[in-house]
Amino acid sequence: DGGHSWTPDVVALQPTAGSLDAYSTCDPGAVKIGAYYYVGYTSTTNPSGTANDVFVARSASPAGPFDKWNGTGWGSSPQPLVHYTGAATDYGYGEPSLVLMGKKLFVYYSDDEAAQFTNVTTVDDATADDWPAHLVDHGHAIARDHAAQDSADVKYVDALSLFVAVTTCDRFGPNASLLVY
Known about the structure:
Layout: E1 26-33, E2 36-43, E3 53-59, E4 67-68, E5 92-101, E6 104-112, E7 116-123, E8 136-143, E9 153-157, E10 162-169, E11 177-180
Antiparallel strand pairs: 1-2, 2-3, 3-4, 5-6, 6-7, 7-8, 9-10, 10-11
């Protein structure tokens, strides 16, 4: 009805106890590819909420149930899409934003080690059932150099022929603002 009423919230995706995503399924980024809705999310095995990884799950319905990527296929024990190997005290990787252009998928994610970046990985054919196994890392896409800058939400704007990223800056302070890349 034009966005005037909404259905009640439902829990679409939950952590898997005793697995590599045991503590959270947060910071989602979603995209529909063919018959599936894919949700990239942040999780960790660290109870302090650090040393995060990026995961992905898929479902034929946006409300689930979702099957998680297990390293070779969908279901059973979730494995990271992008695995963090740095210091256990750092945030790690997370907050994915997924952008589809034709068959090519761009996965942007926060890289919060000693410096703050937004990285990007791609896969040329996201319609392949095992596309997560074929991601190619392209490194840093954005150097985040502002205080309390949050993750970037990235979209492709056809009318501009540009990728556009939006993020917050000084999000908890009196000078809170938005940054656009």
